[in-house]
Design brief:
Alpha-Beta Plaits, alpha+beta, disordered N terminus, six-stranded antiparallel sheet, about 25% strand, about 350 residues
Length: about 350
């Protein structure tokens, strides 16, 4: 099921130069790692492999100390290397940049998140001194269509004999193999552990079909709307794109606010007439950046509309937004940005 490497969580600043250094080292180290993956278990081979894997571990964690890595083989039996943030949205962009810098056509698969591998679900998983037969895993699944999520209860009879950390490790390994790490982040909600099998529990290989049913209504972008009050007590309007997933915009680490004052408003200070039309036209321009940026939130009230976007900081979108804001004719527009790789600003607006 692969060779894994991880470290305890700690704070650190992502290092882009370390990505280039990694791939420069990998070019020379790859043949030895390929040989180590296929080598027989002898004391000499074990020592060589340990040295290579220790160096791989150090190189990955120089990029970021919270990244995890795995060596394995894909369905076509080609070797694979996965470097992942383990589902942490703060690290998804770093793992993606690592993957996009990979060499092409070298016979390897490179993944920035664990891919689905349903065949593993019929094998055994060793954690510490305990071995779990994954054939006995069962999942209780509850679709929450309002949140576009599937809440899951994970059961294995051996959960009675291990601590909570081991239980959760088994649960998330199973979910990642059944669905893939990115789709777990997109569509799986609460995950709980059960020591008694839930009613109507299903084997993990059914999870993908359940998620497909939940995801199907959200193939096209949709917006949730709401109303509230501004700090001055006037009505405000809120629109939130739903669902919008970090994994679909992995390089969009920068939160950008574009604030536009508008000239024509009703007594509640909400836009009307030509101002409402101009705001709609401006919004249309903000949705034309492809995967370089995504418009996630709009807040309107007290003569101001604020657009919240997540942007790839290296894509040139920010200067384009500056130019768009400068063209606004109904007052002084402002553009402000701050790094937000975990999309924390969006969290309070999610259902």
């Amino acid at each position: 099921m692969g060779i894994f490497g991880r470290r305890p969580r700690q704070s650190a600043t992502p290092s882009s130069p370390a990505v280039a250094e990694f791939w420069e080292w990998w070019t020379t180290a790859r043949p030895g790692i390929e040989a180590a993956l296929g080598a027989e278990d002898t004391d000499e081979d074990d020592g060589q492999r340990a040295g290579l894997f220790e160096e791989l571990d150090a190189r990955v964690h120089k990029i970021h100390p919270e990244l995890e890595w795995e060596l394995g083989h894909g369905p076509d039996d080609k070797p694979s290397l996965t470097v992942t943030g383990g589902g942490d949205p703060e690290l998804r962009g770093m793992a993606e940049r690592w993957r996009r810098a990979a060499p092409g056509n070298d016979g390897w698969h490179y993944h920035p998140a664990r891919p689905a591998d349903p065949d593993v679900l019929s094998r055994r998983l060793s954690l510490g001194d305990h071995e779990f037969d994954l054939e006995y895993v069962r999942l209780g699944m509850r679709a929450d269509t309002a949140r576009a999520r599937v809440d899951i209860t994970v059961y294995h009879p051996d959960f009675l004999f291990v601590d909570e950390e081991a239980q959760l490790q088994v649960a998330y390994h199973v979910l990642h193999w059944a669905l893939g790490e990115d789709d777990v982040a997109r569509w799986v909600g609460n995950v709980t552990i059960a020591t008694e099998q839930p009613v109507d529990a299903l084997p993990p290989n059914m999870l993908a079909a359940v998620v497909e049913q939940v995801a199907e209504p959200f193939q096209e972008p949709a917006w949730l709307t709401g109303e509230g009050r501004t700090p001055r007590g006037h009505p405000s309007q809120l629109r939130v794109r739903f669902p919008v997933h970090r994994q679909d915009y992995p390089l969009c680490d920068l939160h950008v606010e574009v604030s536009l004052p508008y000239a024509q408003s009703n007594p509640d200070r909400l836009p009307v007439g030509s101002s409402a039309s101009a705001l709609r036209a401006f919004e249309k321009k903000l949705t034309g950046f492809g995967d370089r940026a995504v418009l996630a939130i709009q807040v309107t009230g007290d003569g101001m509309r604020v657009f919240h976007l997540y942007v790839d900081p290296d894509s040139g979108v920010v200067p384009e937004l500056d130019q768009l804001a400068a063209s606004w004719s109904e007052g002084r527009a402002k553009v402000a940005s701050v790094p937000d790789p975990g999309w924390r600003t969006l969290q309070p607006y999610r259902p």
